[in-house]
Specification:
Two copies of one chain form a homodimer. Chain A has about 475 residues and is of the alpha+beta class. Chain A is built from 15 helices and 17 strands. In chain A, strands 14-11-13-12-16-17-15 form a seven-stranded antiparallel sheet, with helices on both faces. In chain A, helix 9 packs across helix 12. The longest helix of chain A is centred in the C-terminal third of the chain and has 21 residues.
């Protein structure tokens, strides 16, 4: 993308040395995320070290209408941080300052480029943690966690990232710096502007700093794997778990198809012998292990056909590994097409029945692997390429499959993207989850905040 | 306010009978809230029974640029729901439908006019509740609870109302109806538009329905009153309580001045004999009462000078009454000027020291009563008229006092309105808590969503 020479001159003369790079390797690495569907094409990468540098760079880009893609840990799965049209990339990776933990207030101020796991490590010495925990935590950064309102494995216990941020510093497309909410739990002084930027995938502003809200490290949880013969039984188990005398921290679900793939790939230990079709992995906090055992005993009288309560940390990790290696095992043993959807919990059963019926009817022989954070209504729908179908036919059909799946999602008042966001990948399907009125209001907000459309252009909102 | 005859004609011919009223008594009752500072003046009140009627009324008001004040339970304390300039009032009181409780999903769909307490009663039979609990719950309505992002007494345990709503239906100033988020816990599909309307005091849209998120009714809590000799000790106690082997549900604070006023007015039972200056009221959940007693014992070795753990529900209520009758007792025994502020918890001590010093210096002899949800950083600063000062002198001075108090709040990165909102009352002071950049962005959002400025005009945002 040809930018005016004055843009380049200003970059060279008014910013520190090494502020920007056009090195091919850096352009390549910084213009992709974990999504594989897009070809990288960026014009330059900038590496601000301060909010003031971000602000000046944005003001410069506004002056010359230069597009900017904010770039964090790039672990996204929807292409929200890819540069495909010669944009410039603003990497937060040099902004990694971690403040001192405020033990009394249970807060921590960090710059946006701090990796999620570094926050966990930093707080642990004080017996505190930031309760957002996700598989990508070694690479993902706080700015991206907030820009995508990340969830993770303990949403049912702690909620989404939105709940765990007090203050935010945000740079607008024109370079204006907003200081939002400081370290306040309560602040009813007009529109809460933080909320605009949380979860909007960098199309409205660049999150440069955040004051995180912490909690004390919870006691070591108990981990259980329970086997059932149906999704009905899984949901019945879920209802009982929410009424049981313990605190539910995670309620994960997978089918025997998923488990078979994990065993094929990872040769993992399978602790249950009774054949079953639907599994639930529970993590619970309790001060009363006897009551937990009694509860499991009651469940085994009807809905549960087999189960195990992990004896110690190693077995707990082994049970979690069964759940956490599903995604990798599906990719290693076949060619999956993935969707990350959410349903109101009350619709889960009917949705899954509808899904089964429509695959049986329209795509007989296709293997559908279901798993996910079912306690949040979140289902990963993975469809595997039939062995006798060639790759290109399968890829061509998946877009048709998506439209069918998303129609069913819409019919059940669900979301086409529970956690992964919209980015570039899901943009063509956004209308399945958001009405024309909502799209119109989103466009009005985008226009008001970013009138030139220079910030993360083309992401989230489909072209008119 | 003279509206065109076509506006009146449309109202009479295209809306149901009894849709609107210009009866003086109704105009009076519906144009004030619990704030006493404003004189009511409204042109008419409308009572829609459906979202469709709200939408048609807003479209009509847009056509003739007629101003509209959304009206819920009118328990606000900042004049957010008052009509003082001949506006029309849109009351939600006829929209009181309560859906069936979704026990599996733990959700409940309600219309905006349902009183908070009615939600509690409706859910209780299923062992569920909506964890937003406030003194005004008998009158306050769900729509207003969301429009003001209400907190209440259990914020430290459950957070603010923002966390306890899944779906929302909102009518925009032009009559557009938005259906937002259904009953979804996770939905990462672009800008979360719900957040615009939560806490913005009805200046952007009218919340007409909501799908609330419920939790199971917690076990009966333990209630403790602990006495100390300083605010330092209260904060030290707070730190220990967050690290203790129980779940903290409330951590309230008041000074001996407050307590003296309660005893003067209500002749309430005072269970502690040791003289003390600062009190904390704790509500905790625990399965292990012995550990709680041991913890209290440890605290009494240093920071706590006296304490009581309620034995049974009646005593627990009596302890809560001490805290809850403070506001009423101050009004009954003197003339208080009230502020509801918040500080980052780490700043509480320095702020209070600064406050004390500046009153001693600038307003010697004035009585300052401090109490509040200190676990959320929330302080009610009540200043009492000195007995020998006449009322008008006091009232004239309170605006000066406010500017001084708010300057100190700003210096400590606090909020001039923790819970009560801005409305009309705090509008002149908004700049103490929000920067010019924030005010500018809020104005841009208001302009984008309500270009004619007909919705709750004059509220929150100060005139340019």
């Amino acid at each position: 993308m040809p930018f005016p020479s004055e843009f380049w001159n200003t970059l060279k003369t008014e910013f520190p040395e090494n502020f920007f790079s056009t090195e091919e390797a850096l352009l390549q690495s910084h213009s992709v995320d974990w999504t594989t569907a897009f070809s990288p094409q960026a014009s330059l990468v900038v590496f601000p070290r301060t909010t003031e540098e971000i602000s000046r760079y944005m003001a410069l880009c506004t002056r010359f209408a230069v597009p900017v893609v904010p770039s964090g840990g790039r672990t996204g799965l929807a292409g929200g941080a890819v540069a495909t049209q010669g944009e410039t990339i603003l990497s937060l990776e040099k902004m990694r300052a971690l403040g001192a933990v405020d033990v009394l207030g249970q807060t921590l101020e960090v710059e946006a480029g701090v990796p999620t796991e570094a926050v966990h490590e930093h707080c642990a010495q004080h017996g505190l943690f930031w309760p957002i925990d996700l598989a990508a935590k070694g690479s993902s950064q706080i700015g991206g966690n907030l820009a995508t309102n990340v969830g993770g494995v303990r949403v049912i216990r702690y909620g989404l990232a939105r709940q765990w941020v007090l203050g935010m510093e945000v740079v607008l497309p024109n370079g204006t710096v907003l200081q939002l909410n400081n370290a306040l739990e309560k602040n009813n002084t007009g529109i809460d502007l933080r909320q605009l930027f949380i979860g909007s995938e960098g199309i409205l502003g660049i999150i440069s700093k955040a004051t995180l809200k912490l909690v004390r490290i919870p006691p070591k949880p108990q981990v259980l794997l329970l086997a059932t013969h149906s999704l009905e039984n899984i949901l019945s188990l879920f209802l009982r778990a929410r009424q049981a005398p313990f605190t539910l921290c995670a309620f994960e679900f997978f089918t025997s198809q998923c488990l078979a793939r994990v065993q094929q790939h990872r040769k993992r230990y399978m602790p249950l012998e009774t054949p079953a079709s639907h599994y639930a992995l529970l993590e619970v906090e309790t001060e009363n292990p006897e009551a937990l055992e009694a509860w499991v005993g009651q469940c085994m009288e009807d809905v549960v056909v087999d189960g195990i309560l992990a004896q110690g940390g190693q077995q707990a990790r082994q049970l979690w590994e069964l759940r956490e290696s599903i995604s990798e095992s599906l990719s290693a043993t076949g060619m999956p097409h993935k969707n990350d959807i959410a349903l109101p919990i009350a619709h889960l059963l009917d949705f899954c029945k509808g899904l089964e019926a429509f695959f049986a009817d329209k795509y007989p022989g296709w293997e559908v692997c279901l798993f996910g954070h079912i306690g949040d209504g979140n289902l990963h729908v993975n469809v595997l390429k039939p062995p006798d179908m060639d790759k290109s036919t399968f890829l061509a059909k998946t877009s048709e499959v998506d439209n069918d799946v998303f129609s069913l999602v819409k019919q059940h008042h669900g979301s086409i993207s529970a956690e992964h966001g919209i980015g570039l990948l899901k943009r063509p399907y956004l209308h399945y989850s958001r009405t024309p009125e909502e799209l119109n209001l989103m466009r009005m907000l985008k226009k008001a905040v970013d009138p030139l459309g220079i910030l993360n252009p083309g992401k989230v909102l489909p072209p008119l």
